């Protein structure tokens, strides 16, 4: 395929104009929107206004006058349609890790007689770590089970108290069948918490339709909420009444400013709040999510798959010897919005790509990860990145980076 | 005392120039810096740069290139001298409520054989709520005791597993003798967590000297970190090695980007991190804390007390009939940086003051609260506010606000 064909695909793309919604650096091919999404064009001026006017001039009164009190819920209501949820089922708060803790602590406390907490060994590590700490807090009541790939369904039985899974694997992009696994769990009376961090905004999600009751996710990847932007938490309307928060801060009190000396939980999704939200970062989330305004998720998903397939095909063609092994599933429906390759020297390869102005992620131990952000990524970007990758591999320019050591990146 | 005398005090004040470090609204007497501190003059341009350049242009690489990874620790190191702590003992993360949960969960898990968790009924409610949820999580292992005023020392005994106290009471401004209570607890082998939210930046704090091992606090009051800015957590150097985090997220892993499938805790204060920090809000904290650069805390404390005494004296003189009862201790060393009055109709009085451009807090059920922020508050501001208060009371203009209902404010 020629580059000109990609230019034509860009011209014909129904999302072609979405790129204008973002402010992007010149001359960089950015394949890391699944680590940190791009800056929405509307964000900077508004955040500056929040700082100078709402904080500087309005001061304490902006909690009401500028709706700071309602931002967490407003942002949740904007995220809801992107994940197949309804208004009132999602709220923005804390980090993904803290939200996992909040949901898991509450569900384990309510668990009766079951002893196994199941997750996958290949889950994003913070989810495992959070469960380790929590299981330890419950002393001998629960055991943590790290299911091996392929063993997940068999690990879930009538003694399972909780299942915690990430929808899209951060290394390979392999995507679980959320509807099937959720049904499998519910048949056995097992609650499941889904981590949507690598899903929301780029893959099909129908939480209500799939019977999902609990989920968390971050807003700084495909939702473009900004660095470290607060995460969200979802509890289905059908589950919220029975849900009893374990981390009971004043923002989830039924009468927060009554300053009562005993806790009484709010009724709705506000149950999942704890402390005061970071307003500057929270405001940025609104801009990130609003980049999806007016878009059909079908178009977003279709473009994600086409871009991904194009990358796989160009690498297949350009490196016929198989010097890079595809780590992601070939079947589009089983793959999130990323394409990962395995290489024994994936880190030096990532550095050589960076030298060619292609930003990708290296993930321990051997993963080269291309995030596909369909709102601002063009077919020609994929063509150019594949071209750079083929050059790096065929010229072995990555060998010049053999002595580099991995940097931390989120 | 005449207003001219206050003008002279302002001219002679060693902190007179500090007001220039803030951007304040014209024509408003702001006595709510203990709810939301004022905007540091340097913050807006820098946050705009963080958004446009670090996020917009630097994207994922700003985690290293712009030091995002180290901000939480850098901000903690800047806070440390303000509370009598050393670099490496403080880190900025999450909300005050979540930090309370993190410390209390870890300390209770490590507790051996003791059953009582003690706090005060008059503590800031979120601290009580957090403990309620946590005690419930431990099932029958602990009981929560809400000590009544005057009963605190007697409530702490050899069966006490943990004490959680706020240094300065949010309603009255009454300030605990932190050194004495900490010593009382340590003699009985009881860990204490101090909440410094209403203290840091305005009252004397010498955590190391007083033998304090654990503390939390918010940054959006006297530290001027911005709306909902992330909070901080302090663990003394002498206590950090034995401290085992209960909320074990990836940001506290000894090898975060090794993505190991088992948790191993970092060694230092980074143990207290959990998830990804909200960078925009975290950057604002740096500006807030740096407003203290070059100031002697003695000067800050002295000015806080003089402003407070002036307010008490002017109200005493202006309202000799005692129509407002002082709710705060008269003795400066027993009072935080606020002056509170009781009145049966405190809410209408606060609204009448707002109509006279004086911003104060109402606190349920009957408290009118004047926050004293010595970095940007002038003696003339106190004179003008007292003058307005005397007018509101003597003209009974507050009666026009009798039908107003309380708004939520943080």
Biggest chain pair interface: A-B, 93 and 94 residues
The largest beta-sheet of chain A arranges its strands as: 4-10-9-8-7-5-6
- DSSP summary, beta strand count of chain A: 15
The count of domains of chain A is 2
CATH fold label of the largest domain in chain A: Aspartate Aminotransferase, domain 2
Order of helices and strands of chain A: HEEEHHHEHEHEHEHEEEHHHEEHEEEH
Give me the CATH superfamily of the largest domain in chain A. Type I PLP-dependent aspartate aminotransferase-like (Major domain)
The percent range for helix content of chain A is 25-40%
Distance between the termini of chain A: 33 Å
Model regions low in confidence, pLDDT < 50 over at least 5 residues of chain A:
none
Overall body shape of chain A: globular
- By oligomeric state, this entry counts as homodimer
| Number of H- or I-type helical stretches of chain A | 13
Features:
homodimer, alpha/beta, Aspartate Aminotransferase, domain 1, Aspartate Aminotransferase, domain 2, 2 domains, 13 helices
């Amino acid at each position: 395929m020629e580059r000109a064909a990609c230019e034509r695909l860009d011209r014909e793309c129904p999302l072609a104009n979405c790129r204008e919604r973002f402010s992007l650096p010149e001359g960089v091919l950015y394949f890391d929107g699944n680590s940190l999404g791009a800056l929405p064009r509307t964000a900077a001026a508004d955040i500056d206004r929040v700082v100078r006017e709402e904080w500087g001039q309005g001061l304490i009164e902006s909690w009401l006058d500028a709706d700071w009190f309602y931002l967490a819920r407003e942002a949740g209501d904007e995220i809801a349609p992107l994940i197949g949820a309804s208004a009132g089922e999602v709220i923005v708060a804390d980090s993904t890790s803290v939200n996992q803790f909040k949901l898991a602590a509450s569900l384990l406390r309510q668990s009766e007689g079951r002893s196994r907490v199941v997750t996958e060994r290949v889950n994003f590590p913070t989810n495992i770590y959070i469960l380790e700490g929590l299981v330890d807090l419950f002393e001998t009541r629960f055991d943590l089970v790290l299911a091996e790939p392929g063993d997940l369904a068999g690990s879930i039985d009538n003694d399972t108290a909780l299942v915690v899974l990430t929808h899209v694997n951060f290394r390979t992009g392999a995507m679980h069948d959320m509807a099937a696994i959720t049904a499998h769990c519910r048949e056995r009376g097992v609650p499941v918490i889904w981590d949507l961090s690598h899903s929301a905004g780029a893959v099909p999600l129908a939480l209500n339709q799939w019977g999902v009751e609990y989920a968390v996710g971050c807003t700084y990847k495909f939702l473009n909420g900004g660095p470290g932007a607060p995460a969200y938490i979802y509890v289905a309307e059908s589950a919220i009444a029975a849900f009893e928060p374990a981390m009971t801060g004043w923002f989830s009190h039924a009468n927060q400013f009554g300053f009562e000396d005993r806790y009484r939980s709010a009724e709705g999704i506000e149950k999942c709040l704890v402390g005061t939200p970071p307003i500057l970062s929270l405001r940025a989330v609104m801009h990130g999510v609003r980049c999806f305004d007016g878009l059909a998720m079908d178009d977003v998903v279709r473009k994600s798959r086409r871009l991904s397939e194009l990358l796989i095909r160009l690498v297949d063609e350009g490196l016929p010897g198989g010097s890079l092994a595809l780590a992601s599933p070939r079947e589009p429906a089983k793959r999130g919005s990323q394409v990962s390759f395995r290489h024994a020297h994936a880190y030096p390869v990532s550095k050589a790509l960076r030298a060619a102005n292609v930003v990708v992620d290296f993930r321990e131990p051997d993963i080269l990860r291309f995030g596909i952000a369909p709102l601002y990524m063009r077919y020609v970007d994929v063509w150019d990145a594949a071209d750079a990758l083929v050059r790096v591999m065929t010229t072995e320019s990555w060998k010049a980076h053999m002595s580099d050591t991995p940097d931390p990146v989120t």
